[in-house]
Write a structure and sequence with these properties.
Blueprint (H helix, E strand, L loop, with lengths): L1 E6 L14 H8 L11 E5 L5 E4 L5 H7 L14 E5 L5 H4 L12 E5 L1 H6 L6 H5 L5 E5 L6 E2 L7 E7 L20 E7 L5 E5 L7 H8 L3 E5 L7 H4 L21 H6 L7 E5 L13 H8 L2 E3 L5 E3 L1
Parallel strand pairs: 3-4, 4-5, 5-6, 10-11, 11-12, 12-13
Antiparallel strand pairs: 1-2, 1-14, 2-3, 7-8, 8-9, 9-10
The structure holds D-malate (MLT), manganese (II) ion and zinc ion.
The site of zinc ion (ZN) has 7 residues, from helix 1.
C-alpha cells in the first residue's frame, strides 16, 4: 500500500493568503526555516497508478501538478484519481471536488449520509456536479464493516465516526449526526499493515484509541500546539475544542496520547497543521520536543509504503 501526503496544512494553507502571523510572514519572506504546505489531503494506492483521493482540497489542481504519478496519461482524458472519499463536509476537504468536473464519467464519491446531506444542501457541491460529470455515490458504512474501492485491490478501509461538529453551513450544525466526521483505517491485506488517518480529532474516545493502537502508521490531527493558540495570537475566538481539534500540548493532549501508543515500529505523524502552529519551524524548540517523543511532522510529498 502506498500513501502520499498531498496537503499537510489545515484549512487556509501555509502561508494563508491574508495571514501575517510570525509563521506565515516568515515562510513568505524566507526568514524562517519552514516550508510551504497546501491544504489537507492524502492519496492511497495499491499499484501506484490508480489512487483514492482522501479529501479534495481547494489546492487540488496544484497538488495534482506537483505529483506526476496522479497523471498516468493512459487516454486522451485521464487521471490517476480513480475515486474520492471526503471525511467531512468542511471547505478544506470538499471544494476540490468542483475541480474534477471535467471527467467524462460520474465521479465515484465515498461519503457518509451526514456528509452527503451537507454536500447537497449547505455546501451543495454534489448538486452542482450533477450539471457536469455527476457523482456516483457510495455510502461509507459506520457499523464497523469495512469497505473496498475497486481501483484499490487488496486494500480494505474501515471508517469510524468521530465526535466533532458539522461545518458552520451544515443544516444540522447544532444537532451532530454520526458520520459528520470520520477517521479511516487503511488495511493492506497482503502486508497486514494498517494506517490510521484522522486530520480532525476532537476527542479520543475508546474506539478511536483502539484503532490508533492497532495501526502501523498514524496520521493524526496536528492542527494546533496549544488549545488557545488562535486566541492568544488574536486571530480567532475559538479554542481547539471549539474547532473540533485536539491540541498537542497539555494534559490529555496529542503528545500524551501518542506517548501511550507503544506498538513496535509504529510511525506517529502529525498532519493538518494550522499555519499558526510553531511545529512548522523546522529548527524550533517545539519540533525538538516532538522529536524527543518520536513524533514526526507531515509535509507535502511525504510518502509511505506499508
Ligand atoms: C478545520 O478543520 O477546522 C478547518 O481547517 C477549518 C476550515 O477549513 O476553515
Ligand atoms: Mn480542516
Ligand atoms: Zn498565519
Amino acid at each position: 500500500m502506498k500513501i502520499k501526503v498531498l496537503g499537510s496544512s489545515a484549512g487556509g494553507g501555509f502561508p494563508q493568503w491574508n495571514c501575517n502571523c510570525w509563521n506565515c510572514d516568515g515562510v513568505r519572506n524566507g526568514t524562517l526555516n519552514a516550508q510551504r504546505r497546501t491544504q489537507s489531503s492524502i492519496v492511497v494506492s495499491a499499484n501506484g497508478e490508480d489512487w483514492l483521493l482522501i479529501n479534495a482540497s481547494p489546492d487540488l489542481l496544484a497538488q495534482i501538478a506537483a505529483h506526476p504519478e496522479l497523471q498516468p496519461a493512459r487516454r486522451a482524458r485521464d487521471s490517476g484519481i480513480a475515486a474520492v472519499v471526503t471525511m467531512d463536509a468542511q471547505i478544506d476537504h470538499v471544494t476540490g471536488l468542483l475541480m474534477l468536473r471535467e471527467r467524462d464519467t460520474p465521479l465515484p464519491l465515498y461519503v457518509t449520509d451526514a456528509v452527503l446531506q451537507d454536500l447537497s444542501t449547505g455546501l451543495p457541491v454534489v448538486s452542482i456536479l450533477a450539471h457536469y460529470c455527476g457523482v456516483e455515490r457510495h455510502a461509507i458504512p459506520l457499523d464497523g464493516a469495512s469497505f473496498t474501492v475497486p481501483a484499490l485491490p487488496g486494500i480494505r478501509i474501515e471508517a469510524l465516526p468521530l465526535s466533532s461538529k458539522a461545518p458552520p453551513y451544515s443544516p444540522h450544525r447544532e444537532a451532530p449526526q454520526r458520520g459528520d466526521n470520520i477517521g479511516l483505517t487503511f488495511i493492506d491485506e497482503h502486508s497486514g499493515k494498517r494506517a490510521f488517518y484522522a486530520p480532525g480529532l476532537g476527542a479520543l474516545e475508546p474506539h478511536v484509541l483502539e484503532a490508533m493502537n492497532g495501526a502501523d502508521l498514524l496520521l493524526v490531527d496536528g492542527t494546533l500546539w496549544t488549545p488557545d493558540e488562535m486566541i492568544e495570537l488574536g486571530l480567532s475566538k475559538k479554542t481547539a475544542a471549539d474547532m473540533g481539534h485536539l491540541a498537542q500540548t497539555g494534559a490529555g493532549g496529542m503528545i500524551e496520547v501518542l506517548d501511550s501508543i507503544e506498538r513496535a515500529g509504529v510511525r506517529k505523524v502529525l498532519i493538518h497543521i494550522n499555519n499558526t502552529n510553531p511545529i512548522l519551524i523546522e529548527d524550533g524548540p517545539e519540533r525538538r520536543r516532538l522529536a524527543e517523543h518520536g513524533i514526526e511532522v507531515a509535509f507535502d510529498g511525504l510518502a509511505f509504503e506499508l
